Amino acid sequence: MSIKPTRRNLLTAAALTPVAIAAGSLTAESASASTVDTALEWYDLTVTTITEAGSPAQVTNSRTWAIAWLAAARAQQRETAPEFRQAALASAIHSVLSAQVPARATVLDAALTTTLSRLRNRPGKHRGVTAGREEAQALLGERAGDGLDPASVNPPYDAGPAAPGVWQPTPPSYTPGQQSGTRFARPFLLPTADAFRPGPPPALGSARNIADLEEVRLYGGLNSTVRTQAQADTALFWYGSSQVLYNPVLRAALAGSHRSLVWRTTLVALFHIALVDTQIATSDTKYHYHWWRPVTALAGTGWQPFHVTPSHPDYVSGHNIYSGAAEGVLTDLVGARTAPYTVVSPSSGTTRTYTDWATPSRENVDARVWSGIHTRSADEQGIVLGKKVARHTLREAWRLF
Predict the structure, then answer these.
(1) Angstrom distance (rounded) from CA 111 to CA 116
(2) Phi-psi region of 138 (alpha: psi -120 to 50; beta: other; left: phi over 0)
(3) Are residues 209 and 65 in the same domain?
(4) Which SUPFAM superfamilies does the UniProt record give (predicted)?
(5) Which entry of 174, 283, 320, 333 is 20 to 30 Å from 131 by CA?
């Protein structure tokens, strides 16, 4: 059976089986006695599991998300019965999270028992448990040795001699380059890490280079006299982990969808698959160009950034490639606008409410400049690269099934 994917139908097309395509609405899969949304239940369990006991490497956590939810999507395709699909989802995610985050095994075991106890005791339920477990084990096997473990992501790295435009460890910790090994990891769908590598950053002394550094100097300095309070608030809001900041964004898309359970499960899987491949592309670009950070470029002036600079090259911005990929996936599959959703910032403790997927991207571009840790060129090219990886992920999603 051959189906050509098209934008918002990509998730249905990606399933590539009559079983999955026949399930067109959430209502049809909610016919069991349970009124609990199993997808949201296990989404929240994935969030808490990874937040409380996951890996310190963000891409490793994205990998766990991708494997767990892709295994669940694959398992659900075998049958259409509601009990089967809910049991398959819970079993697959439980199996992957238990294997990847063993410290949470007891909590996950109890959660699986709770989910299964709600489902009618029919043969489909038991087959769903088996299917979920089998797909989880198979996918963990497929992804073994993919280079996304913390040690492979962060090998020893020597920046080499200092020179104009060349990245060097940054104050105050002067930590060696981080995430340099991610570029060598095995992607889910990217043909190569450099498949969408952008052109070089603006040349030293060019008009754009001078303008970039002047903007960061004026608006991103620790003692800036021109940065407004609103700009400082935006910088602090987006300063934390992209993965943590985007958990409620993806949850809003999941909660707002009335599509089938397998469709919604695949939405989460493709989101994180795109983000794994995006982070591989980020590492490739950063360590190919090895471009210095503003704090190094402006070192001779006594300038200091508003926020501490992360320990890897400037070009391109990891935060913005994450935003670009997330925006690309959600816009293509869910639509440009959505019901209001709220994001809590771990770095500021404040909340912001949005009604689309693009505004967080725009804020991220500005935020990294106003934090003093990226040039605008690095931010804007990060958005572009993230969107390119997202489009490729959706175009090639059929290969995952």
Answers:
(1) 9
(2) alpha
(3) no
(4) Acid phosphatase/Vanadium-dependent haloperoxidase (SSF48317)
(5) 333
In this predicted structure, which of 117-126, 230-239, 287-296 has the lowest mean pLDDT? 117-126
Containing H/E element for 217? helix 207-219
Q: Report residue 2's pLDDT band, with 50, 70 and 90 as the boundaries.
A: very low
Contacts of 198 (CB under 8 A, 6+ apart): 285, 316, 381, 384, 385
% of residues, the chain, pLDDT over 90? 90
Statement to judge: residues 371 and 297 lie in one domain:
yes
Contact 2, 387 (CB under 8 A): no
Task: Give a yes or no: residue 7 inside a domain.
Answer: no
Count of C-beta atoms within a 10 Å radius of residue 200: 14
The pTM score is 0.93
Backbone CA torsion sign across 216, 219, 220, 225: positive
pLDDT above 70: percentage of residues in the chain: 92
State residue 119's pLDDT score.
95
106-109 long-range CB contacts below 8 Å, 24 or more apart?
A: 107/49, 108/45, 108/49
Residues 279 and 376 in one domain: yes
- Residue 283: what pLDDT? 98
Evaluate whether residue 26 is within a structural domain.
no
What's the total number of domains in the chain? 2
Residue 351's beta-bridge partner residues? Answer: 344
pLDDT at 13 over 70: no
Based on the fold, state whether residues 238 and 108 are members of the same structural domain.
Answer: no
Two structure tokens written together for 139 = 């996918």
Residue ending a domain, choose from 142, 160, 179: 142
> What is the Cα–Cα distance from 378 to 290, expressed in whole angstroms?
12
- How far apart CA 85 and CA 305 sit, in angstroms, is 50
Same domain, 250 and 357: yes
Q: Which domain holds residue 336?
A: 187-194+203-400
Q: How confident is the model at residue 66 (pLDDT cuts 50, 70, 90)?
A: very high
pLDDT for position 35: 86
